[in-house]
Amino acid sequence: MAGTRLDTQVVVVGAGPVGLLLAGELRLGGAEVVVLERRPEPTTESRASTLHARTMEILDSRGLLPALGDPPRQPRGHYAGIPLDLTLPGPYAGQWKVPQYDTERLLEQWARGLGADIRRGHDVHTVIAGAASHVETAAEGPGGAVRVRSPYLVACDGEDSTVRRLLDAPFPGHDARRELVRADVAGVDVPDRRFERLPDGFAVAARRADGVTRVMAHEFGVPPRPRTGAPRFTEIAEVWKRVTGEDISGGTPLWVNAFDDTNRQLDAYRHGRVLFAGDAAHRQMPIGGQALNLGLADAFNLGWKLAAHVTGRAHPDLLDTYHLERHPVGRRVLAGIRAQALLLLGGPEVQPLRELMTELIALEPVRAHLAGLVSGLDVRYDVGGPAHPLLGARLPHLALDTPGGRTSTTELLRAGRGLRLGGPHGGPGPGTDGPVLVRPDGHVVRAGPERADDEATARARWFPAGVTLPTTEGTPCP
Question: Which segments constitute the FAD-binding domain (predicted)?
Answer without folding.
Answer: 7-334
